[in-house]
Amino acid sequence: MRRFFQRVNIAVILVAGFLCGGFLTSAHAATDAAVSFAQDVNAAVGAATSVIGKLQKKINDGSVSAADIDPDDFLERVAATYKDRTERDFGDPNHPDMGVFHETLKSSIREVLSDYRSDILAGGQDSFVPAFFRAELLLSLERKMGKGFEAVVTTREADLINGDSSVNLVFRDPKVAKYIMGLVDAGEPNVMQETIDGRLVSYFPMALRESCVSCHIRNELKHQKVGGYGGALVVSAPITE
Q1: Whether 90 contacts 44, CB under 8 Å
Q2: CB of 49 closer than 8 Å to CB of 133
Q3: In what order do the strands lie in the sheet with 192-196?
Q4: What is the pLDDT of residues 121-162, one digit of tens each?
Q5: pTM of the model
Q6: Residue 136 to residue 79: CA distance in whole angstroms
Q7: CA distances, 184 to each of 139, 164, 201 (Å)
């Protein structure tokens, strides 16, 4: 009888070990997928923001043409910029999850270009800056993506132009806000990722460019320098298995 129970116990241990190993593999794969997704959000949103950034001089001068912001042509430039930066096709069919996100991003880009078409064409100094385009793009993405997806740009309090972008206001979860507050207050220069309550929170820091600093100086942020800490894009999304 004892030998029988010993065999049963060994079998249970083996099965449990097999199931646990499968679970860990699945959990690891889910985390890897979440990491890849966050990295892609950063790359794709960055590509779109770069395209509007290249129009900044024309916007400031009031010389933007309708052709410059034609949605189809604009999206082609976003796709080309994305491929230059990632060596991947925008909407790559080999990565269906990314493809879904890219289609949503395209829709959001069209929405923002349509909503602010008259402002962009009218132009004027700092009338439509890349940071504003990115903020509106991220708001649109959050609405369309749903499922707890969050993507925001924020920075430390002393560097805020718009108080609505404060860390204390843009995150629903106070644990996420506390984690990000520690990073922005320190001016953390490295990409950071942390799992918080089943969510992967990814922090992508940015450096200030000359055009950013010039605009910020006109908005009384005179302490900033080119190459200095420029806040971060933060992506927070559930880890799903």
Answers
A1: yes
A2: yes
A3: 150-154, 229-238, 199-207, 192-196
A4: 999 887 888 989 999 999 999 999 987 899 998 888 776 676
A5: 0.82
A6: 19
A7: 21, 16, 14
